[in-house]
Amino acid sequence: MRTSVEHSLRQDWSRSRRCHSLTDKELYEAMGQVIRTDPVRLAPYLARDHVLMLIARFDSFRPTRYQVRLWRALGKPRADFVPLGHYTSILMLPAHRVSVMHFFEENLDRTPSNPAATAIQAKN
User: Fold this and answer.
1) How many CA atoms lie within 13 A of 64 on its CB side?
2) DSSP 32-76
3) Are 56 and 62 in contact (CB under 8 A)?
4) Roughly how many angstroms between the first and final C-alpha of the chain, as a whole number?
5) Could you tell me if residue 21 is left (phi over 0), alpha (psi between -120 and 50 degrees) or otherwise beta?
6) Would the pTM of this model clear 0.85, i.e. be above it?
7) Phi, psi for residue 52 in degrees, rounded to 5
8) Which pLDDT tens digit goes with each residue over 52-71?
């Protein structure tokens, strides 16, 4: 939030600072006490083969450098780079639909993991 160029995030950051009478550094440290983890730290616990990333090249909400950092921490799983921003990337979804569905079929187990889901599937 502190370094984002996303207007709404910057507003939230500034509003939080003002409400609590904190400097940037103090708010950053206070948030660090509440936010205990980071996706990059959890990355080693994910199976690389079960990850497909769509990385937006011009994302100001989740800057591309952070997406790439996560991609590296995940062991460089398959990634498709989208030449748009955070919200405008949705426009590329039709182009990626076949690729995403193929990835799911190849890499994710479609067997339900609990008896209730199995019963519902059998009923349908």
Assistant:
1) 13
2) HHH----HHHHGGGS-GGG-EEEEETT-TTTTHHHHHHHHHHTTS
3) yes
4) 45
5) left
6) no
7) -130, 120
8) 999 999 988 888 999 999 99
